[in-house]
Amino acid sequence: MSTRKKPRGAEWEAFVEEWYINNHEGKLALAKRYDITYDTAKHFISESGATRKQVREELPTGKVAQEEAIKEVLALTPRAKLYFSAFDIEATGLKADFSVLLSAVIKPYGQEPTVFRADDYPNWAEGKRGDDFSICRAIAQELAQHAVIFTHYGTGYDIKYLRQR
Asked: Is 44 left (phi over 0), alpha (psi -120 to 50) or beta?
């Protein structure tokens, strides 16, 4: 690659716009077309502080139009299967070493929830209610199948509790 100078004027504006609409492969092709390296193109963009001109469409006005727009957005499905889920547990206390896991729910996007109940496991019926190993293992195995997990206070309680058990 040679040391071509940075585009100017309208050519620069077109370069910036094309940079922002392309994926990585497109950016590589753009740099090659201008006879510069990808890193040089990236440097041009970052050094100039150039941002993409955002075309703002008129937002729908009126409550009915806004509700229709919201329904339309919510009806969209992700392009990739991310398997993201909501997750929550309930236990007899806040400390994993002095409480018992009672139940948990994992609700994957667009699917029915999976409910885990301690009283569905053999230890509960046998009177060993403090032994929640089976339910904890089942929950952990199910969670491992989901790429993204949403919780209310998961990092402070749910995930910590499950790991400690």
From this structure: alpha
